[in-house]
């Protein structure tokens, strides 16, 4: 179904086609470029008629028709029978993008669990599989669990492994651009693990690894309170404060993957403040959502109990210190507070607002996360979908 | 020489061509796409033979030849007479990008002066003009000075205004995405000035306005110590500390243009520390380079005088606080210290190094600026060149 032949994209990109270009390649190349343009337009607005697509791409109708014939033959699109729409004459041919023409896998690998989601190219969840693990499990065994969860997702969804277009994994720690974990204090044996390379043995498609807060930010932008916010900071509150940054609509990872490690600013009193509010430290970064200590304390603060209020105030002062430093640096449109306190926006946001407004010249909107505990795995699916889109744009010619 | 007709780029971009597409536009469109690809390849590596360009673009040689004929006719390229290169047979035709096929203007508008540079499309300075102004000059008069400086640059370079492809202006303050100054404490009457819109009456090409630190960062990346660094923080030391951020190779301005306003973290003692080292406050953001007080103090510190060392230590502690907050947020590859202390790297960098290494998990490289006092105007030229490149990519069809 898929060939190894790689297609390098538009001619502006350079030399990638020169070696594999067939004789008379000029014409063939242009047909491919047109197919990519038409598929891209169809992906953004499906179903569509030939006229819609011609208008969206600026291509002529016969050119679009030829491209659509190719795309249907290659399995990327399907022709729909048009219903009677009350118009005179032959109904217009309509085409739909086939969301089942490919799949992606997203994972959340934490200390306590490995969660996997199989999704189609529209991001619809096809199958979910979760396995609880011992926080002390060594890295090799944890990778083996990940492989098992992947297999269960594929089997559960009835999808062949060869149809995967991208795999993305979120985990705590700093991930180098090549998908190697360089810093991790949460998962045993995780440091220096070339996770992307290790997993590329199990998958023929691109394998991406990213920091959990980065992916939670991506999920918040796709499904949550920060929908379509292009300049976003997601503050993930766990044992420390970490952040995921979306800048210009994309995850910003920094030179060595260490962007958002704002928790290193945590003042000495942070651990005590955190523990008072969130209960004893765990090794999980997103957790404790319904922890009773926390709920009691938040209720106390809402009821005006002075000790509870003082804890909430102290906690917010630390959060604000981090939010301010990041706001002055990147000027986000919005800051989202994620982790175990998403339900306490009524207490947190006004306090944060006051601190941030006092210092920042252009203060961002503030909100608590609405995505919940599956933020990391849903963000992983989003990251994998972006990689699949990239393949679609550059790789429409790789199917026969 | 130039028509108003706008060309919308690749077919992937969408509908921009549908209204202006001539009959039989499919073929014409493809020819334009090829011209853009060939011009882009020529711009990156000029001069080049048809074979070079065919290899770089992945297009066939006849296609490249047709595109080059168009580009020469339109004035973007010139055919060079090939010298004897010791090879048998007819010498290969070579083409060069015409750097004089367009020009850009860059400006540094400060409290004390307006500096303008006219440059060709290779970024070579063609003419420079500078006018000293009263720091209290009102905004209208200052804009008038800018127009005069622009006229002098064009006259001095013998370049018609119509050949300008982009104009960029750097000034202190926060600049909204539409080129309006929203915050400025340095230039009288500058706040709420729609500078880009005001100047668009004087220029037919795009007019961009940006913060001075952003442009200094861009210059440092083009000409200075941060050459080709894609993740860069440029700390501009003036009355406060401001920063320009390059992320992913581009200036990061943030949602409202307020990225890098890290000076709002300045501790209460900053003004005193700054004044001890840099002398009395001026309203200029980059200045005081050769201020005698500063030089004496730096010499004192180098000679081990304890009072001078203490001032330098205090100053570096404040700088480090800002550098750390920004590093933890965006994880830059390099931080450059610019402003009046570029010659004091021997004193500043080891002290900063110590602070930054103590906190940051992946510490950046540290350096002092090597571009000097023309950083802002040279950065403005770079920004204008980027806009011109964008026009080249999307607008090659606009000449007849």
Automatic annotation (TrEMBL), chains A, B:
Protein's name according to its UniProt entry: Putative NBD/HSP70 family sugar kinase
Record Gene3D superfamilies: 3.30.420.40, Winged helix-like DNA-binding domain superfamily/Winged helix DNA-binding domain
Source superkingdom: Bacteria
Keyword Amino-acid biosynthesis attributed: no
Family of the protein in this entry: Belongs to the ROK (NagC/XylR) family.
GO aspect biological process, one term: regulation of DNA-templated transcription
HTH iclR-type domain span: 34-79
A UniProt-annotated Pfam family: ROK
A molecular function (GO) term: DNA binding
Natural source organism: Prauserella shujinwangii
Keywords: Kinase, Transferase
UniProt region (Disordered), positions on chain: 1-24
